[in-house]
Each structure stands twice: as structure tokens, then as C-alpha cells.
Design brief:
alpha/beta; four-stranded parallel sheet
Length: 174
């Protein structure tokens, strides 16, 4: 059923990459329904679940776990998640953020984690980024990138190229 949903979603969207999603289907089913005891009526991951995900990843020598979805800086369990990363030896953790809600407290929480990389979403030059994400978000993102330099050296800007920004690729790389 999980694989069928992946294909149906890609068909409805008219694009996407199937390999990763199809390859992870069995793992997600096992985690959500057998290991984490996922409750669809209460979908939030709790510290117990995060710890179990990291434990299973480490035991199975999963190379990398990516923390993303919504805005991770707003997760109620962010501090517990960062603490849980401290026990990882083989598995590395990267976090994807829009970098717009970075308080001093959040920076300190992130410093306490074992993050190997932070990726920041930037959709393009100011006019395109703000068209997609709202007025004032470009400068917040740029300021956020500067703040995140305190946390990790491996900071990556990620962009989705689409019909509104692909022609400005050279500007995106500056």
C-alpha cells in the first residue's frame, strides 16, 4: 500500500523522484507501525520515537538521517532530538531549515547536538525568494545563515529550480 501511495502521489503531482521513496517504503512501514507504535490520531513524533529512530539507524549503519518537515526549529521536541544525536557514532545527522526563526536559545540547542550538516532553503534572489516565502524572508534567511555558522562548518544552501528561477542559476551560486 505504501508503494502504491508513492506512485499515485507522483502521478498526481506530475513529477518527482520515485527511487528514494520506493526504497524507503518498507522501512517507514516497519518504523511507524511496528517499532514506533505510530498513532495516526496523534502524529507528532515524541522523544521516545526519535531515540528509537536514531538507535535503529545506528544499529543498521544508516549513513545519514535528515531532519526536515515543517520547520524543525519550531518542533517542541527539538532539544530532545539534539540530545539524542549525541549518541550517534556511525550515523550522521543533517537538518533542513528555512533559517528564519533562530533565537539565541535555538542556536545553543543546535550547538548541543551532533549535527554534521545544516541545509538552508533559499529559493533564489530576493524577489523570487520573497514571492515564494513572503515579504522579509530573504533577509531573515541570510541573517540565519550567518547565525548557523556558529553551529556547523558544513552549511549548505539548497534551492529548488523551477520555471521562476532556473534562468537565474548563476546568481544562485554566488
Amino acid at each position: 500500500k505504501a508503494r502504491q501511495l508513492v506512485i499515485e502521489t507522483l502521478l498526481e503531482a506530475g513529477s518527482g523522484h520515485s527511487a528514494g521513496s520506493l526504497g524507503m517504503a518498507d522501512i517507514f512501514v516497519a518504523l511507524y507501525f511496528h517499532i514506533l507504535n505510530h498513532d495516526p490520531k496523534n502524529p507528532e513524533l515524541v522523544d521516545r520515537d526519535i531515540n528509537k529512530i536514531f538507535e535503529v539507524a545506528e544499529e543498521n549503519r544508516v549513513f545519514e538521517v535528515t531532519l526536515t518537515g515543517g520547520e524543525p526549529m519550531m518542533w517542541p521536541g527539538l532539544e530532545g532530538t539534539m540530545k539524542a544525536t549525541q549518541s550517534l557514532v556511525y550515523t550522521s545527522v543533517q537538518l533542513i531549515t528555512n533559517a528564519t526563526v533562530l533565537s539565541r536559545k535555538i542556536i545553543e540547542i543546535l550547538k548541543g547536538g551532533n549535527l554534521k550538516r545544516i541545509c538552508v532553503s533559499l529559493d533564489g534572489p530576493k524577489e523570487i525568494h520573497e514571492k515564494n516565502r513572503g515579504k522579509g524572508t530573504f533577509i531573515k534567511t541570510i541573517q540565519g545563515i550567518k547565525k548557523l555558522r556558529q553551529v556547523v562548518d558544513n552549511l549548505t544552501v539548497i534551492s529548488v529550480l523551477d520555471s521562476t528561477n532556473y534562468h537565474q542559476w548563476p546568481q544562485l551560486t554566488k
